Amino acid sequence: MYGKGSGRLRALAGVSLAVGEGEFFGLLGPNGAGKTTLINIIAGLVRADAGEVRVMGADVIGDYRRARRLLGVVPQELVFDPFFTVRETLRIQSGYYGIRGNDAWIDEVMQHLDLTAKADVNMRALSGGMKRRVLVAQALVHKPPVIVLDEPTAGVDVELRQGLWQFVTRLNRDGHTIVLTTHYLEEAELHCSRIAMLKAGRIVALDSTRNLLASVAGSRTTARVVARDGRQFTLELAGYSQLEEQLAGLRAQGVEIADIELERPDLEQVFLRLTS
Amino acid sequence: MISFWTLFAKETLRFWKVATQTVGAPVLTSLLYLLVFGHALEGRMQVYDGVPYSAFLVPGLVMMSVLQNAFANSSSSLIQSKITGNIVFILLPPISYLEFFAAYVLASVVRGLVVGAGVLFVTAWFVDLHLAAPAWVLGFAVLGAALLGSLGLVAGICAEKIDQIAAFQNFLILPLTFLSGVFYSIHSLPGFWQRLSHANPFFYMIDGFRYGFLGHSDFPPGASLAVVAASFFVVSLLTLKLLQSGYKLRY
Could you tell me if B202 and B63 are in contact, meaning their C-beta atoms sit under 8 angstroms apart? Predict the structure, then answer.
């Protein structure tokens, strides 16, 4: 359990959760819910007023050296050091983690993130998307078993987003634990096996993605039916099992069905219901 | 230790990559001081018997450059990192506050010594200089630069904007260096100002450093070195406390 607050604003309160090793975990919530504060506490950038955080057993304050070595964080802000090239940046970052001669791994990371061609380009000269890739690479130089991505795809084009997810999914398959915050709910739905939803500094939902989706399934599933003559029908379904029955009802009225569109429950519905 | 060396190397590279601005410019400024003041005051001001004014002025100018640039290095690097946000790159890894302190201060010492050597190199063409006691020269330069590098860290930690660093530099560091006897011997001052100068730690750094060249000083060099060492000790403790607490770095 931990919190962070000073006087007027309490950013987090009573947040208690455990992410399992090898999980792909999503942290969702509206702006200002406390997602980044939570990540910053895990990373040691912000100190909680109360409570504790452990990364694979290492306390982020008491055993900060071990905790930070186990953790790779991709910060949300697009930051860079304008004095150095991409390769220099990654070599320096390796050195901070006590690693020398890391070029083989640096080359591999750059290759996966499509950065090889930019290796000797100054950070200042890179586009926003490229700078984002370097941030990801910087978080991975020390092969951390736990990777935290804070809004990694904000302002990033489709191509990079695809490449990034492929790489992150592969890291997860290789055993890395992934903690992700994102505004794109479909990304969370697609990748995360478990999700916590934060609202005003508190956890309002913590469950597997499947259970969260099931919680809104049924009550919200709708089928839009378009007839050959252009008429449209909206069928409210308590469950998929009702679909057959209701379609039969339409046919009985002489409706010839041209198109059916099923609106499946998605995280957005869960999100809206829990956070609004 | 690798973390420390990497941070030190990065801090050194940072100023070296823009050496025109961080080394060339202060060397030129010092050369202008020498040409203008040296020319205007040569023959009119005799500080120590048998020592021409220029030969008195140059060691002071060298030490002033060492101190100002040591301060500028740590303070500007830290405030830039804080403002641009790339400070996270050194806050996320397992770098201890001792390594952090040592890397920034040592890089400041290197910048101070490089600029000081540059000033010495260009002014030596105009002035006949002798090294009476090189060990004192090195001792005061290193310890003085470390003190100012550490002060620069304090300024960089406390400041939130670049103009706060500029204020620190213009209203504290610059007056203290100017009034420390770079351009004159404090013995030429009226009694009150002489006593006040003794309260200025910069006076001891300039005076002791000059002793290494001229073999003369206003104050015994051993006592001056003790004052500088004690100041460094106090400022270091303060800096380490700030770093350990995460003041204005980790919220």
Answer: no
Q: Alpha-carbon distance B121 to B187, whole Å?
A: 29
For B62-101, letters b (16+ CB in 10 Å) and e give bbbbbbbbbbbbbbbbbbbbbeeebbbbbbbbbbebebbb
The answer to whether residue A61 neighbours chain B at the CB level (below 8 Å) is no
Chain A within 8 Å of B191 (Cβ-Cβ)? Answer: no
Please state, in angstroms and as integers, the Cα–Cα distance from residue B96 to each residue in A55, B6, B28, following that order.
18, 13, 38
Q: How is residue B180 written in tokens?
A: 């420390």
Q: What confidence category does residue A1 fall into, taking pLDDT thresholds of 50, 70 and 90?
A: very low
Does B39 lie at the interface with A, CB-CB under 8 angstroms? no
Residue pair B9/B72 in contact (Cβ under 8 Å)? The answer is: no
**Could you give the percent of chain B with pLDDT greater than 70?**
100
CB-hemisphere CA count at 13 Å for B236? 20
The CA–CA distances, whole Å, from A60 to A14, A64, A72, A147 equal 18, 5, 13, 15
Q: How many degrees, rounded to 5, is the angle at CA B218 between CA B214 and CA B224? A: 95
Measure A20 CA to nearest chain B CA, in Å.
22
pLDDT band at residue B46 under the 50/70/90 scheme: confident
Query: Is A46 in the B-facing interface, judged by CB distances under 8 Å?
Result: yes
CB contact under 8 A, B92 and A44: yes
Q: How many CB atoms lie within 10 A of CB B120?
A: 21
Evaluate if residue A83 carries a pLDDT over 80.
yes
Q: Are strands A2-6 and A9-15 parallel, antiparallel or unpaired?
A: antiparallel
Q: How far apart are CA B156 and CA A40, in angstroms?
A: 22
Structure confidence by residue, pLDDT tens digits, B209-223:
999 999 988 899 999
Contact A77 B3 (CB under 8 A): no
Residues near A163 by Cβ (< 8 Å), separated by ≥ 6? A112, A113, A114
pLDDT score of B23: 94
Test mutation, B21, B77, B89, B247, chain A, max A CBs within 10 A: B89
Distance from CA of B84 to the nearest CA of A (A): 7
Q: Which pLDDT score, from 0 to 100, does residue A136 have? A: 93
Q: Is B19 at the interface with chain A, CB within 8 A?
A: no
B5 CB within 8 Å of a chain A CB:
yes
Q: Using an 8 Å Cβ cutoff, are B38 and B54 in contact?
A: yes
Token pair recorded at residue B16: 């070296």
Full-model pTM: 0.87
CA distance A165 to A55: 23
